[in-house]
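== Item description ==
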Amino acid sequence: MPDVDRDRAWLLTVDGAPQSYVDLDAPTHLEFEYARRLGHVLDTLADPGRPLDVLHLGGGALTLPRYVAATRPGSHQDVVEADRGLLGLVVEHLPLPDGPDIALHTADARAWLEAAPADSADVLIADVFGGSRIPAHLTTLAYARAAERVLRPDGVYLANLADAAPFAFLRSQLATFAEAFGELALIAEPGVLRGRRFGNAVLIAAHRPVDTAALARLTAADAFPARVEHGAALREFTASAAPVRDAEAVPSPEPPGGTFGIG
């Protein structure tokens, strides 16, 4: 659907859930709060403008691949999207600009990840939703270890997650990725972390510390300010949650009616 307030800007919805927003004339414009938080992380991972090898699991309208291409020219990017029809629709109506090195793949995210070369990505961004829920097979320890294998030693895993109090899903994801990575951080609005509403949280996992101070400044300055949790506070939040095994995995929780425009 076109955005009446911005020329050549479009909103993509899937099964009634807003999934992506793209401004073809301004690829660095990130409309959704979670996308801006992912953009902040991408901006602080390396020197400005330095090219990165980025693997995107979940294509949507290719918002973040466009952002990386604009902010880090020369980056190589792979985008894995299971929905061939969706990918074809996006490429037809919201074409990528000429020049950026962006390869599009139609495949299941985990199957593609498990077959990908080791140490081949600087950043892995997971934003995969079946409608409004993250598929169960993308929540497990085996999946986390596959992601860790594909990333280079200083690589960073990012994921868009969604949950609400009592945060059984979010805590299980923190416990799962803590088994595969030495450093974790979480970005979310204070109201979400306090259990006041259902919402998005950006998970960051790596074997090296990320610049949480810079992220805290950037996310606090957004129109919808967020908080960056890490270290002891994040371990306390995770509490006694256990890693998720394939046999017990379930999709992320269904958003309440009206959340993200669903209802």
